Amino acid sequence: MTRQTTTQPPVPFAELFLPKLVTVLREGYGMRDLRADALAGLTVAIVALPLSMAIAIASGATPAQGLYTAIIGGFLVSALGGSRFQIGGPAGAFIALVASTVQMHGMDGLFLATILSGLILAAIGFLQLGTYIKFIPYPVTVGFTAGIAVIIFASQIKEFLGLTLSVPEPGPLAEKLPVLWDALPTANAVTIALAGATILLINGLKKLRPGWPGMLIAVALTSVVAMVLGLDTATIGSKFGGIPSGLPQPHLPEITLAKLQAVLPSAIAFALLGSIESLLSAVVADGMTGRRHRSNCELVAQGVGNVASGLFGGICVTGTIARTATNVRAGARSPIAGMLHAVFLLLFILVAAPLASYIPLASLAGVLAIVAWNMVEKHAFATLLRASRGDAAVLLITFGLTIFRDLTEAIVVGFALGSVLFIHRMSNTTAVETHAPFVGQDQSDATLPALEGPAASDRGVVVYRISGAFFFGAAASIGSVLDRIADTHRALIVDFGAVPFLDSTAAHTIEGLAHKAARRGVQLYLTGTTHQIREDLFLHGLKPPMVHYANRIEDAVRKLHLDERGTG
Q1: Are the CB atoms for 159 and 365 separated by under 8 Å?
Q2: What sign results for the dihedral spanned by CA atoms 509, 521, 554, 535?
Q3: Which of 77-91, 183-197, 233-247, 300-314 is predicted least confidently?
Q4: What integer is the mean pLDDT of 86-98?
Q5: Nearest CA among 542, 547, 548 for reference residue 506
Q6: Cα–chain-centroid distance for residue 422?
Q7: Burial 151-167 (b: 16+ CB within 10 A, else e)
Q8: Where, residue-wise, is CATH 3.30.750.24 in the chain?
Q9: Burial (Cβ within 10 Å: 0-12, 13-18, ≥19) of residue 95
Q10: What architecture does CATH give domain 445-567?
Q11: How big, in percent rounded to 5, are the helix, strand and coil portions of the chain?
């Protein structure tokens, strides 16, 4: 059996940062593609409209700033990025960071921090460090995502219940909850009803009419009800005076050495979280489409988007998983869909901005409550708690630090604990051999290898043999190889005979492979698994008939042929 290597000829530096938009135009782009992208862009804009305003309000900014972010940042991320399907805009993950930055440094400080974070992101991309973001362990991403969801929900309790606070609302959760508790007697039944109705409408439409834009419909209906009945509840108009009918002029915030030093920690936090969030989003898009993004090119685009957003009075920009997935499901063909999503949002503020004044803040609180609930990877959280003591500890510590300390500290400590856990596991293994580097390099589209794996004696069967420790650092490179299943293959065999252990990130990679194989009608066989590895795979749902197990590769091939004769 021959092994597949990842050695590639040197790629020109400029090719690594060539936007996917240029690649698409080189391949040929016609009216059919434009129609598909326009429909996808409109669909995403409908989803992004209420979300962008809600996230900005929760972050301590104005709803208009959320729209500026989605328009300016979203357009540039799609136009310059290394992913065909990435949608950029304000993200719920940044709410706590942005709100604390506004509290400490004011709005000008936020703009400066956003611009600085963009420069840092661009530098990370140009230095080709983006691929190393894949070293963030899976329990850390699940933990801080769940922690952010709790913070988002807590930030909306005041608007959800219509509370009147006697003191300014504190930022930290431990200080916030007592203040909210004391204000409970001031709860507004009308506001609660509007927020509850928004949640019910979104969930009801998701079940009954999943193709409809539930968030926009829910916000529109509750706004009409509040306006027609003259309900006593806070709206965008009463709190912010509405939304301007156009974009502001770009301006540079005041820059002094003292100001730069003051906002630098926030800028670094924005860049760290933005790089993780955007690359995770790009990976999700790759998994849904079979395409490959260029992580360093994507980070440069995120950097440019943040610089421009800060200049136009916007907040932090990043790739957004939910809107990117919506873009893919809506049939997008290219980055033009993301650019058109920004154009449609611009048309909204040019034509229909006055209508936004009637939107109740309670409705947007209901939207963010749904966002927070959807952010929590509930199945993954429960699985990691059962997976191992080490993974559970990393998960819970990251989760706790995110809620009660801050996100940067949570990621740094979680990553450090994950590294210690890895070192401990590595110390218990011997003769670790890897046939592919842990970190794959970005490639130009012209030099991507053919999607073929090592050939078995049966040309319809692909056999991969994993050697060495299968852990979070190796999962990215191994996963990219395993993903290359050709439609002409009827079976894939993955041999674990030389794998001493695997972690939850690796099991998650195999789980994704199993789902992809099932969609393509490819039978998946896992061979050579130890008792412990098989238990870990079972824990992630990798059981027959989704996957088949055999002791050796030869046994798997023999079983495959017997099954085919039986069904033939």
Answers
A1: yes
A2: positive
A3: 233-247
A4: 88
A5: 542
A6: 25
A7: bbbbbbbbbbbbbeeee
A8: 445-567
A9: buried
A10: 2-Layer Sandwich (3.30)
A11: 65, 5, 30
